[in-house]
Amino acid sequence: MLIIAKKTNKLDGQAVLPGSKSQTIRGLLLACLADGQSVLRNALDCSDTNTAINVFGELGAKISKNGHDLEIESFGLPLLAKTNRLRTDNSGITTRFVMPLLGLRQNCAQEIILDCAEQMRQRPTKPLLEALNNLGMRVASLNNDGACPISATNELRGGSSIIDGLTSQYLSALLFSLPCAINDSVLMVENLHERPYVEMTLAWLDEQRIKYEHKRENKKDIFTIYGRQKYIAFDKNIPADFSSASYLIAGGVLRFGQVELIGLNMNDQQGDKRLVKILRDMGADITVEGMKMTIKGGRELKGAVIDCNDIPDMVPTLAVIGAHAQGRTELVNVRQARIKETDRIKSMYEELSRMGARVEEKDDGLIIYQSDLRGAPVHGHNDHRTIMALAVAGLVAEGETIIDTAESINKTFPKFVETMNQIGADIKMINS
């Protein structure tokens, strides 16, 4: 599929935003571990969440859709796996969150295989595998490369382990599962990145009254998680997704007009909400009243130095914004953006360069200078965030921008084109 984006001088209108992917999948996981019926309201419907639904269903939960809500029935622990082979497609969060759950199954002495699609097979999981082996399980990469497919046996019993913090998903996966282990656990986390996602995980644990302790010593995070705890069924509203909203926010800021976005909660733990403060500091006119955000576009933006360590998903969006801002914009301290669905530092350097931007690629980020963008055929790298950010660039560029692998937006924001059209963007999707 292709997305074709044409220069759009003015964006006007209102859009209701989809639910958060990160919150939806966290809710599905805990509902699977709880005994009883849980409800997730305003849950995101996309390929990543559908993958999670399928996997948690194979682990014994019964999950049904009721409009925008998900109803989950589970018998709790031990999980009753229906198969000895699970598949998580290209969902990184589902793949990593499921790994510890394989040690909470009935008859977990029996081997189970966890596999995924090719893109996810290229993403690292070795630090999580090593930690799980320290915590009682026996897990191994079948290709001996530290990635999927993996085999798993034995119980997640708890204990002590060091875990790398390059991606927060390793830590969150363990924080969700270890309260169910028979022993207490201590995790020492080195080099913790993406802290807002960990805070999101801890907020779920706090709502469930899970007992744990967290302290920081010598630049390391130490978590003590008490075992033999239980999750209880719940009914929760999923807030709108700031990551998906970023493309509408960016478009609203870069073009003239007024855009209203409905459903965003600035009190939610999602780290990507920091985009709002970043843009305000650069000169954007953005106001928030309750769950409504209003963006008045066309203001001049000034370049900035932006530490993206906590917001790696914003790198593509901020790169596009940087090409419009006066002077130069630096995106720094975000080396982990190279191990997402694609190397987002490299992909944005390459594609914005094709569109005429002056960009410099650094080991841990990008330097982007104010540039006059021109439409061009660009590669989406099968990465939903790269594709949607390039579509926003196409609204600013002279001429027509054609983005390939556009079907990848289904991973998190299937209605991206439709929603952008609601605020006046000249974007369409066609078969390639």
From TrEMBL:
Catalytic reaction(s) noted: 3-phosphoshikimate + phosphoenolpyruvate = 5-O-(1-carboxyvinyl)-3-phosphoshikimate + phosphate
Binding residues annotated for phosphoenolpyruvate, in chain numbering: K21, G92, R123, Q169, R344, R385, K411
Q: Which residues form the active site?
A: D313
The protein's matches in InterPro entries, at most eight in alphabetical order, are given as:
Enolpyruvate_Tfrase_dom (IPR001986), Enolpyruvate_Tfrase_sf (IPR036968), EPSP_synthase (IPR006264), EPSP_synthase_CS (IPR023193), RNA3'P_cycl/enolpyr_Trfase_a/b (IPR013792)
Q: Does the keyword Amino-acid biosynthesis apply?
A: yes
What is the E.C. number? 2.5.1.19
Q: Which domain of life is it from?
A: Bacteria
Q: What does this protein do?
A: Catalyzes the transfer of the enolpyruvyl moiety of phosphoenolpyruvate (PEP) to the 5-hydroxyl of shikimate-3-phosphate (S3P) to produce enolpyruvyl shikimate-3-phosphate and inorganic phosphate.
Q: Which residues bind 3-phosphoshikimate?
A: K21, S22, R26, T167, S168, Q169, D313, Q336, K340
Q: What is the annotated localization of this protein?
A: Cytoplasm
Q: In which pathway does it act?
A: Metabolic intermediate biosynthesis; chorismate biosynthesis; chorismate from D-erythrose 4-phosphate and phosphoenolpyruvate: step 6/7
Q: Which UniProt keywords apply?
A: Amino-acid biosynthesis, Aromatic amino acid biosynthesis, Cytoplasm, Transferase
State any GO CC term: cytoplasm
Q: Which family does it belong to?
A: Belongs to the EPSP synthase family.
**Alphabetized GO MF terms:** 3-phosphoshikimate 1-carboxyvinyltransferase activity
Residue ranges annotated for the Enolpyruvate transferase domain, each copy included: 7-420
**What CDD domains does its record include?**
EPSP_synthase
Query: What name is this protein filed under?
Result: 3-phosphoshikimate 1-carboxyvinyltransferase
Quaternary structure note? Monomer.
GO biological process terms, alphabetically, are: amino acid biosynthetic process; aromatic amino acid family biosynthetic process; chorismate biosynthetic process
**Carries keyword Isomerase?**
no
Question: A single Pfam family, by name?
Answer: EPSP_synthase
Principal location class: cytoplasm
